[in-house]
Fold each of these.
Amino acid sequence: MRLLIDQDVYKVTIDCLKRWGHDVVTAGQLGMQQATDEDLLKKAGETKRLFVTRDKDFGALVFLKEELATGVIFLRVTPLTIEHIHLQLKFLFDEHTEEELMRVFCVVEPRRHRIRYLFGRKDNR
């Protein structure tokens, strides 16, 4: 998977994703530490990367502004739940293709994940 990682994602998660062989780029590597949420989503869309974050505000953005609609994975994680989140994230990536995930907002929680298609359509892009 091609991933753009928000600055709030734990380093241990970034390292895990890289270890699994994913193409990981962080907002910091792109010089976007101070970028707005909208700019981060635009960059994810332009570079055809799934956006991974711990910030729930991205859910509102991708559903309110269709031009920002791109795949977002929201990690509902704390230091105590990180191992469970990693297991669920692995399951998510094993179960879905990158193309499918580019059309959803996904919440990853300990022991489950929930998918909501952007603008209610499975084929929106």
Amino acid sequence: MLFFGLFIAFGLSAIPVMVMLVVRAQVKAGNQDVPAIAAVTRRQNVIIWSLWALIVAGLCVAIPAMTMSGAFE
């Protein structure tokens, strides 16, 4: 369970890094004037929190199913 928890923590911590890398690469490429990129730049935290919420919701379904099938034994 400890390694599974560390794996989940690593996965969740990688999401902000990926979102910020993509946004910074788009801004560096000169696309900050594109309305979609400007909106994404302003709403990075919303994107990160919504992705975290989706992953946690999936884990709320997956972990009990894994436990019932004997994955942690």
Amino acid sequence: MNKIRKGDEVIVITGKDKGRRGTVLQLFGDDRVLVEGINVAKKHQKGNPNAMPPLEAGIVDKEMPLDISNVLVFNPKTKKGDRVGIRVSADGSKERIFRSSGDTVDI
């Protein structure tokens, strides 16, 4: 069970975007994560009229992946980033919890 999932709200703890929050768009394996509006880079793009949808030439802003160790799941109660643990309930199902308070992580 992954501790960070697609759709989680995360906060960046290191790097040029430290302190910014965003939503996880995609996970790349177990070590990289793509966050909406974070780690944006300028990319030069060549036009392609045959692509669907057609690509226009120019300089575009593109979100780049971050290392998963540089983000924490945002805890709305404490308004801070929090580590996530996994608790196995009595019936054998797993649930994600915040380490500081023990509350379940709501998606």
